Amino acid sequence: MGNRVVLALGGNALGDDLASQMEAVKQTSKAIADLIEAGNEVVIAHGNGPQVGMINNAFTEYGKIDPKYPYMPLSMCVAMSQAYIGYDLQNALREELRNRGIKKTVTSVITQVVVDEKDPAFQNPTKPIGPFMNEVEAEEATKRGMVVKEDSGRGYRRVVASPKPVRIVEIDTIKAILDAGQVVIACGGGGIPVVEEGNHLRGVGAVIDKDFASCVMAKQVDADNFIVLTAVEKVAIKFGTPEQEWLSSMNIEEANVHIGNNEFAPGSMLPKVEAAMEFAESKEGRKSLITSLEKAQEGLEGKTGTWITAK
Ligand SMILES: Nc1ncnc2c1ncn2[C@@H]1O[C@H](COP(=O)(O)OP(=O)(O)O)[C@@H](O)[C@H]1O
Ligand SMILES: NC(=O)OP(=O)(O)O
Superkingdom of this entry's organism (predicted)? Predict the structure, then answer.
């Protein structure tokens, strides 16, 4: 009998544009199908940084040419990114499972996540979206009203507010699909950020971090493991330096020491470690794993990756 696992898929699992996404999801599906074939119950969440920026830019630019095209709120762009990525991913995984004789359905749930309108994140945009820009493009984007920041020496990117997830609106649906033995993709792009106004859910302009949203989901579906899949096999200290040291495990106390020493880059590895810690601390026996997509199965077998545990 396998484990119940929530997977948070990083950008490298999805590609940056339509063509690379179709290719990337094929490889991603092989890794996920290995986990399902090994008997694990799987819930999949994914990022949307490049995609939500692309969708928002496309509407904004076309709106300038033809005013009949309406302003497209960021919350709606997140919804579109969930559908666009989910469609490709669910079909690629369905095909891979069928090639292996596994007749499970794969369903993407358009997922809304409640956020707090008073979250200080609304005053301090940090989430990079869309493509990288050079200095000239960054200046032009700033003139058009975008907030642009330098992204760890890799160029400039637009940044938007990224409030913390409070509650997943469709959580009962996600659980029902999982309890029926089927595969579910949910909380894509961190979920569509909404605030509650009585019975009305109003979309707000933000992009939630998918690592934090999928951690909330992992707790709520009572997962055994929360697995963050990114481009590196393990978390490192002194990352990118000659003294780099890959970590096979860390407990909460050790992780806090590393965070205090600024070992994990904000906006990339730090939110992954923080989400992994939050899950590991939430209930006895829960463990988080940070590894690469290719190593997911080996990681779950305890052979690689960085395991994060309470003690
Ligand atoms: N301490 C660290 N250990 C390992 N990787 C790190 C560390 N600090 C920063 N990184 C970088 O963070 C990246 C993961 O963040 P990011 O690319 O934003 O994630 P995502 O896969 O969700 O798109 C890794 O591929 C690596 O380049
Ligand atoms: N929403 C989100 O966290 O997307 P990325 O993983 O692409 O940054």
Answer: Bacteria
**Which 3 state secondary structure label does DSSP give 307?**
strand
The DSSP symbol for 2 reads -
- Single pTM value for the model: 0.95
pLDDT one-digit tens code per residue, 86-142? 999 999 999 999 999 999 999 999 999 999 999 999 999 999 999 999 999 999 999
What is the Cα–Cα distance from 301 to 34, expressed in whole angstroms? 12
Structure tokens at 13: 């699992």
CB half-sphere exposure, 280, CA atoms < 13 A = 24
Instruction: Verify whether residue 68 is a known catalytic residue.
Output: no
φ, ψ for residue 269, nearest 5 deg: -80, -30
Contact 300, 32 (CB under 8 A): no
φ, ψ of residue 47 to 5 degrees: the values are -80, 180
According to DSSP, the β-strands at 41-46 and 4-9 are parallel
Q: Distance (Å, rounded) from C-alpha 249 to C-alpha 66?
A: 54
**DSSP string over 235-246:** EEESTTSTT-EE
Report yes or no: 75 and 203 within 8 Å, Cβ to Cβ: yes
238 carries an active-site annotation = no
- The residue assigned the tokens 């590991």 is 280
The interface predicted TM-score of the complex, written ipTM, equals 0.98
Surface-to-core class of residue 17, CB atoms within 10 Å of its CB (0-12 exposed, 13-18 middle, 19+ buried): exposed
Specify the amino acid at residue 303: K
User: Which residues partner with 290 through β-bridges?
Assistant: 228, 306
Which ligand 2 atom is nearest residue 129's CA?
8
How confident is the model at residue 2, as a pLDDT?
A: 86
| Residue among 48, 54, 228 to mutate when testing ligand 2 (max atoms within 8 A of CB) | 48
